[in-house]
Amino acid sequence: MQKYWGYDDFRPLQEEVIYSVLHGHDTLAIMPTGGGKSLCYQVPAMCHDGLCLVISPLIALMKDQVDGLLKKGIKSYAIYSGMSKKEIDITLDNCIYGDAKFLFVSPERLLTDIFIERSQYMDIQWIAVDEAHCISQWGYDFRPPYLQISDFRNSIPRATIIALTATATSIVKQDIQDKLSFTEGRVFTSDFSRGNLSFSVRTVEDKSAKILEILHKIPGSAIIYTGTRKETQEVNRLLCAHGITSDFYHAGLSPDARTDRQNDWLKNKTRVMVATNAFGMGIDKPDVRLVIHYHMPSNLESYYQEAGRAGRDMKKAFAVVLFHKKDKADMFAQLQRSHPGFDFIKKVYQALANYYKIAVGSSQMESYDFDISHFSETYEMHASEVFYAIKKLQEEGLIDMSDGFFRPSRVLFRLSGEALYEYQITHEKQDTFIKTILRALGGEAFTHFMPVSESRLARNLNSTTYQVIQNLGFLHDEQVIFYEKSSNKPQITFLTPRFDSKKLPLNYDRLKQRKKLQEDKLNAALDYISETNKCRQRIIADYFNESVLEDCEICDNCIERKKEAPELSRKEVLEKLELNFGNTPFNIEEAVRLFPRPYQKKTMEMIRRLIDEASIIQEGSNFVIPPEAEKKAGQ
Known about the structure:
By secondary structure, the chain is of the alpha/beta class. It is 45% helix and 15% strand. The strands form 5 sheets. Strands 3-4-2-5-6-1-7 form a 7-stranded parallel β-sheet, sandwiched between helices. Strands 8-13-12-9-11-10 form a 6-stranded parallel β-sheet, sandwiched between helices. The protein has a 3-stranded antiparallel β-sheet with strand order 14-19-15. The radius of gyration is 29 Å and the shape is elongated.
C-alpha cells in the first residue's frame, strides 16, 4: 500500500477486509462512499501473482480506476460498451499473455461466448464485485445481469470473491452472499454511527431562502443535490446572485466542463456544487461541511450515501433535507412515472429496433450512440417517458443505457514494425505522418489501442485537425492502423439478440414486485422526513438493521428533545429502576443509562435525592431499592 498508493495507515475496516481476502475467504464489505473500497481488492491483488477481475456497472468509474492504476505503473484494462470487437479481442489477449493485474468489465460481458472462452486462459485469482447491491432484487438498483456472476464464478472455482457496496439492508446482505455462492464467507460492515454528522429535516415554504440561511450559518465546502438539471442551474444562479461561489453539475455537460467544475470544487476554488445525483461517485473530498438535499431521494439507501459525503474528515458536518408540503405528492407522482405500462415498454423497444434498423435475432452486445431527444421527437414520445421505459428494459437485462462519457480517439498499428517500415518506404507521403504518430504513442501502439489527440498531432505537424483526421482515416482504410474516433454520447447496448416486441420476455411479476418494493422504500423515506421525535441516526440504522447504541445528540430531533426534556418524578424513576433491577444491586451508571440521553442529567440528580432520603440505599459498591421504597413508589 505504501509502494503504490503512498499511504502509511489503513482506513477503518480496510485492513480486516484485505486480510480476509488474502486468506482466501469470500468477503462482503459494506463501506461508505469515500471509505476506500477499491483498495480492498487492489492491495490483495498486488500482493500475489494473478489477475483481479473487477465487475462494475459504471463505465466512468471503470475508466477512472484504470487511469489511476496505469499512472501507478499497474497494468490494467477495461471492457465496456462502445468498444470495437477488435479492441475487445486485443484487450483479452493482453490479459492472457501479458502481465495485466486488473480487468474491469460490466456484468453484461461475462457470459458472452468470447469472454467465457478467453477467461479460461486467464489467471483469475480474485473477482471483485462493485456495487454488489445490484445483484439483489430487494436492493434499490437491481440489475439482472449481476445474476450471471455466479454462473461465471462456477467456471473459475479457484477465484476468491470480494463484494463491495456502500449500503445494504440485512436481507440484501444475505441475498448478495447467496447469489454469489459464498463459501466460508466473511461480512464486514463499517461503523454505522456518524458522531460528527448532524442530520436534520427542515419543513419550509421557501426553499431558496432556507438554502441561503443555512449557507450563511455553516461555512465551508458544500453540495446541494437537486432533482433535475434545470434546478441545478436555477439554484446556482440564486447562489451566485448572493455572492456565494457556486457552480452546477449534471450528466448533460461536456466531459471537459464536468472535469473542470469538479476540480475547481475539489480545490475549494468553488465553495458550493449544485448537482444531480450524477455527482459524487468515486470522489473523496474529506472536508465537505454541508450536504443539502433540495428534494428527499426516493429511498434511504441513496440518501444515506449522498448525505454521507459530508464530514469524512470526522469534523462537525451537516446533512439537511428541505421539505415542502407538496413534495410528498410529487414523490408519489414521480414513482408512478418511473413505472410505465408494459405496452409502452414494448413500444419503446420496438421503436429502438426500428431506429437502428435492427433485425430480429441480431445485434447482441452491439452498441449505438443514443440521442434521447432526437429519438423521442422521431417517434413522438415524451423524453422522460422514454427514459423510464428504457430503465425498465435495463432492469430486465434486455438493454443497457450508459451515460455520456468521454472516450478519446484511439489508434492501434495493424502492421508489425518491419511491415510498417516497408510501407513507409513505398508511401513516402505518409512517412512523416506515421513517424509523428510513433513518437506520440510509442511502441505500445503495436500491442494495444492508445489514446491519440488529433489536435496535438496537428500542432506537431503544423497542420489542421481536419487534415490529421483525414490522414488517420486513410491509414485505417489502408489497413495500416485501427482508428476509432472520439465520442462523448450516451450509448444503447442490446444485451440480447433483438426480440420481436410482441414476444418480449418481460418478467411481469418481478416488475410488479419491484414497483411495490420501491413504494415501500419511498414510504420509509417519507417516514424519515415526518419523524419528529426519534434520533435520525437511529431511524437510518434501524432501516439497515444496524445497531447504534446511543442517540446522536446532534440531529434536529435530539436537540429538540433536549430542549423539552422535563424533570422525571420520584415515582417514575423508582418504578423504572424496580422494573429493571428489582432487588438486584446496581451501579449508578447503568441505572442512568436506562433513561433516554436527554433525561439522563436530571435522572442522575433525582437518584442522588433518592439516596439522600434512603429510598435507595448503598450495599457495598452498589445500590439497591429497599422494599419500603417500592411501596412508597406504588403509592
